[in-house]
Design goal:
Low-confidence stretches: none
Structural class: mainly beta
Pfam families: CUB (PF00431)
Strand content: over 45%
Distance between the termini: 18 Å
Oligomer: single chain
Number of helices: 0
Largest sheet: 4 strands, antiparallel
CATH architecture: Sandwich
Shape: globular
CATH class: Mainly Beta
Number of strands: 8
Mean pLDDT: 89
Order of helices and strands: EEEEEEEE
Protein name: CUB domain-containing protein
Radius of gyration: 14 Å
Keywords: Disulfide bond
CATH superfamily: Spermadhesin, CUB domain
Helix content: under 10%
InterPro entries: CUB_dom, Non-NMDA_GluR_Accessory, Sperma_CUB_dom_sf
């Protein structure tokens, strides 16, 4: 929406996220000379006790085949991700029956 910074969250945050999610939650498209910086303020996904834990993937670009620059599950706070170019997208994969709170993060377009 043309904002240079803001906050984004997982579905239903701070309540538990729904099961069976496999979608691109957020797409960030900057201006030509910008990069995108994400900071995960709160992060609480299912603990990886199975072969299919809940996780998010951050890709360096808009295409689903863009390079993965971060992949997270479990809990963490303060983690930062910076794109190499002007575009970035965040994917969330959930198949568990043991959902958690999800995440809250900030984004900023930097010149």
């Amino acid at each position: 929406n043309g904002r240079s910074q803001g906050i984004f969250t997982s579905p239903n945050y701070p309540q538990i996220y729904p099961s069976n999610i496999n979608c691109i939650l957020y797409t960030f498209i900057g201006e030509l000379e910008e990069i995108v910086e994400l900071t995960f303020l709160e992060f609480d996904l299912q603990v990886p006790i199975t072969n299919n834990p809940d996780f998010i993937v951050v890709r360096d670009g808009l295409d689903v085949s863009s390079s993965v620059i971060a992949q997270y599950c479990n809990t963490l706070n303060g983690e930062q991700v910076i794109s190499s170019g002007k575009d970035l997208h965040v994917n969330m994969m959930v198949d568990s029956k043991n959902q958690r709170q999800g995440f809250a993060a900030t984004f900023e377009f930097i010149r």
